[in-house]
Write a structure and sequence with these properties.
CATH architecture: 3-Layer(aba) Sandwich
Number of domains: 1
CATH superfamily: Uracil-DNA glycosylase-like domain
Oligomer: single chain
Helix content: 25-40%
Largest sheet: 6 strands, mixed
CATH topology: Uracil-DNA Glycosylase, subunit E
Strand content: 5-15%
Number of strands: 6
Shape: globular
Distance between the termini: 32 Å
Strand order of the largest sheet: 1-3-2-4-6-5
Order of helices and strands: HHEEHHEHEHEEHH
């Protein structure tokens, strides 16, 4: 299980973020997602039969002083829904954390469980939806029900300068965040694309990136070089 207590040498988690984590992990707002995440945690995958599954909403994690927010889709059923930390314990996370390590955002290239020593510097990772959805497909209604958690999270992450959106679903969630912050959205709304940058008039602009799912990485639609280039651009945009 993840914990608000940081590993040795990590930046302490401020009380506000720790309190928000406690609220997020007790959420039961979406009946379909609650039923699915708990069913998966009870039935388990054979290869993880001896693991104790998390089976709850997954909070964000990383450096509370981060300038970069990385926004994913949702926890994987046998990844974060098992380990309790977003992108931890699945193939998408393997791809992402290796890239974050190459870019200097992570202290190690792999993450297998929540207490494996992984630390992020100048980056915070979160998800548009905090519970594992059936077929990895949350609904827009579930995304919107989860929106207040991201609003509260961003209010506490006071140094965020850029949101890196992993996939179109996360892009739409980030636009909803901008609207929730009081910004008037253009019509039509800016479309998602890999390496697409949109500033608008808000506090933090958006940068698009294909999601590091196996569907993208195994087919070559998303490559190491593409991720490296996007993370390098994120560095430039945040002045780091």
């Amino acid at each position: 299980m993840p914990s608000a207590v940081p590993p040795p040498g990590a930046v302490p988690v401020p009380p506000g973020l720790a309190a928000l984590e406690a609220e997020i992990t007790s959420c039961r707002r979406c009946p379909r997602l609650v039923a699915w995440r708990e069913e998966v945690a009870a039935v388990k995958r054979r290869s993880f039969a001896h693991d104790e599954y998390w089976g709850r909403p997954v909070p964000g994690f990383g450096d509370p002083r981060a300038r970069l927010l990385i926004l994913g889709l949702a926890p994987a059923a046998h990844g974060a829904n098992r380990t309790g930390r977003i992108f931890t314990g699945d193939r998408s996370g393997d791809f992402l954390f290796a890239g974050l390590h190459r870019a200097g955002y992570a202290n190690q290239p792999v993450s297998s469980h929540a207490n494996d020593g992984l630390e992020l510097t100048d980056a915070w990772i979160s998800a548009a939806v905090r519970c594992a959805p059936p077929a990895n497909k949350p609904t827009p209604q579930e995304r919107d029900a989860c929106l207040p958690w991201a609003v509260a999270e961003l209010a506490l992450l006071e140094r965020i300068e850029l949101v890196l959106c992993l996939g179109g679903f996360a892009w739409q969630a980030a636009l909803q965040l901008r609207a929730a912050a009081g910004e008037t959205m253009p019509r039509p709304r800016p479309a998602f694309g890999h390496d697409v940058f949109w500033d608008g008039a808000g506090r933090w602009p958006l940068l698009g990136c294909f999601h590091p799912s196996q569907q993208n990485t195994f087919t070559g639609r998303m490559t190491d070089a593409m991720l490296d280039a996007t993370l390098a651009r994120a560095r430039e945009l945040t002045g780091s």
